[in-house]
Amino acid sequence: MPPPHLLLVNLGTPTAPTPDAVREFLGEFLSDADVVDLPRWLWQPILRHVVLRSRPQRVAGAYASIWRPDGSPLRSATERMVGAARDHAGDRLTVSAAYRYGEPSIDREMQRLSRVHSGPIVVVPLFPQRTSATTGTAFRRARRAAADAGVSARLQERLIHPADPGYIRALAARWREALDTVDAPPEHLVVSFHGIPLRYNLRERTQYTRDCTDTTEALLRAIGWPRARATLAYQSRFGPEPWLAPATARVINGLPAKGIRRVAVITPGFLTEGLETLEEIGIRAREEFEARGGHHLLLIPAVEHHDALAQSLVDIATGTSEARHAVPLARGEDS
């Protein structure tokens, strides 16, 4: 039998830091009912006539502040992850990447694989914490793409466990590497995950927040950091409804008033660098923290192509992972 193919699925990125490219990307992203589940008849006019007219200019400026000579940080990091996984896999499997939004899309990559690959296709979303807006939508799109390409019988779904040993080792290694770059250690650690609306988490029986807690506790054990000096928080809120709390920005901004002048922020839910890490935390949060009297904000780099994570991805695809594989989460279903 041919070896399996590992398809890593990341969120996606605009093709350029321009209003037009951002508008196209946001249009696809915010049209996904797993991301914004308002009735289409209500949401689409708001999206088209309000959000996509006002938001792309500002977001394009944010992307421009992090854009690199080789393009989008998220895309280049994802490609490095593919390369690292290939190096660890040898001839046990082949590897490629696709994006839930943007190109190469899951649909396009599934069509390509239907022509060039005859073995199992193992889809692994690059989101260790489960929710319908990330792992759920990635799997649902992959199922539809596989059906359209005629390869449904070969599709397999795998997840990165929130406390996967290789993932946690990679996070701990990035922490140690970052500490080596500073003269004095941080006084507090903020563990920041992407937020979701509160009702999404309740509908999914708190699976997402439980996964975030599992990752946080495993990380703190791995780095020997006291729980009393760490705060789990949620970032990147969008829209007016209640989201998970506490908000990362509020937590960071409140630290100087407590006498905490040096803080580290780690973002375990983002396996690759992107707008949410480099701009939201590395630029905006740092500026606001220092404006309130903070002395130094240390942003811990994303795990990206670290060897420990790359080996875990290969082990997950080949069924030899140290941690159990969680069942994919569908909207309104138990995990």
Which helices and strands occur, and which strands form pairs?
Elements: E1 5-10, H1 19-29, H2 40-66, H3 73-89, E2 94-99, H4 106-116, E3 121-125, H5 132-149, E4 155-157, H6 165-179, E5 188-194, H7 198-203, H8 207-223, E6 230-235, H9 248-254, E7 262-266, H10 275-291, E8 296-299, H11 307-318
Parallel strand pairs: 1-2, 1-3, 3-4, 5-6, 5-7, 7-8
Helix pairs in contact: 1-2, 3-11, 4-5, 6-8, 6-11, 9-10
Model description:
The chain is of the alpha/beta class. The chain has a domain of 135 residues: Rossmann fold (3-Layer(aba) Sandwich), CATH 3.40.50. Strands 2-1-3-4 form a 4-stranded parallel sheet, sandwiched between helices. Helix 10 links the parallel strand 7 and strand 8. Helix 1 crosses helix 2 and helix 4 packs across helix 5. It is globular, with a radius of gyration of 20 Å. The protein starts with a strand and ends in a 17-residue tail after the last helix.
Our estimate of the beta-strand percent is 5-15%
What fold name stands as the CATH topology of the domain at 165-299?
Rossmann fold
Principal-axes geometry comes out as: globular
Query: CATH class of the domain at 165-299, anyone?
Result: Alpha Beta
| Helix count, DSSP H or I runs of 4 or more residues | 11
Instruction: Strand order, main sheet: write it out.
Output: 2-1-3-4
Low-confidence stretches are 325-335
Helix content: 40-55%
Largest sheet: 4 strands, parallel
- Radius of gyration, in Å, reads 20 Å
Average pLDDT, to the nearest integer? Answer: 95
- Taking the alpha carbons of the first and last residues, their distance comes to 31 Å
